[in-house]
Automatic annotation (TrEMBL):
Any one of the GO BP annotations: mitochondrial electron transport, NADH to ubiquinone
Pfam families attached to this UniProt entry: Tim17 (PF02466)
Protein name: Tim17/Tim22/Tim23/Pmp24 family-domain-containing protein
Cellular compartments per GO CC: mitochondrial inner membrane; respiratory chain complex I
Keywords: Membrane, Mitochondrion, Mitochondrion inner membrane, Transmembrane, Transmembrane helix
Transmembrane intervals: 20-38
Alphabetized InterPro entries for the sequence: NDUFA11
Cell compartment(s), UniProt: Mitochondrion inner membrane
PANTHER family named among the record's database cross-references: NADH DEHYDROGENASE [UBIQUINONE] 1 ALPHA SUBCOMPLEX SUBUNIT 11, NADH-UBIQUINONE OXIDOREDUCTASE SUBUNIT
Membrane topology listed for this record: Multi-pass membrane protein
Length: 201
């Protein structure tokens, strides 16, 4: 999502911070539970099925706490500021990273994780909030966009054949005649075309 400057044309609509935080906490908690299950399955000694919760349950709890705090602080910050921009992600990243640093139990770790997550999430949101780059223009028709890309990168077939040659399923009209001529010049005998299709024989 591109940063919203919150101008007069774009009236900010408040969001429900609690429900979005609980949803994100459940999502992150599920991911943490999956990682805990993977870690339990890689144990060298035999552990019971409840070791996911008893031995490695802190992973799922940490993930759920980070997701909940991050999303709640992001939405609450946007509601208070009435703007939906990258500063909300910076605030949320600082608090979410601090929760992640609580596992270490030291102030430098809390501040370091908070600063790292704050900068990362703010820069990610500022640059468009998408891994695959900026979003496509909704005013451009998808068919026309793809046709433009095809024309931009299309090469003439003559240029392709000049580089790689005919054969290997690349056949222009008159290919069989040219092939027979090359074989006659190279080996001195003429190849008579035979159709292997019994319906056309």
């Amino acid at each position: 999502m591109a940063p919203n400057t919150g101008g007069d044309d774009d009236k900010y609509k408040p969001q429900d911070a609690v429900s979005t935080a609980l949803t994100m906490g459940a999502l992150f908690g599920s991911g943490g539970l999956f990682l805990a299950a993977v870690k339990t399955s890689l144990e060298k000694k035999h552990v019971g099925p409840w070791a996911v919760f008893t031995k490695h349950g802190n992973i799922a709890a940490t993930f759920a706490a980070v997701g909940t705090v991050y999303e709640f602080s992001r939405v609450a910050s946007a509601n208070l500021r009435e703007k939906n921009d990258h500063y909300n992600n910076a605030i949320a990243g600082a608090l979410g990273g601090a929760v992640l640093g609580l596992r270490a139990g030291r102030i430098p770790a809390i501040l370091g994780y908070g600063a790292l997550m704050s900068v990362t999430s703010a820069v990610f949101e500022y640059t468009g909030g998408r891994i695959q780059g900026t979003g496509r223009d909704p005013n451009v028709d998808e068919y026309e966009r793809k046709e433009m890309l095809r024309k931009r990168y299309r090469r003439p077939v003559e240029e392709t054949i000049a580089e790689i040659g005919e054969g290997r399923s690349i056949r222009l009209p008159g290919y069989e005649e040219r092939r027979r001529k090359r074989l006659k010049e190279a080996y001195g005998f003429e190849v008579k075309p035979v159709c292997a299709d019994p319906d056309r024989a």
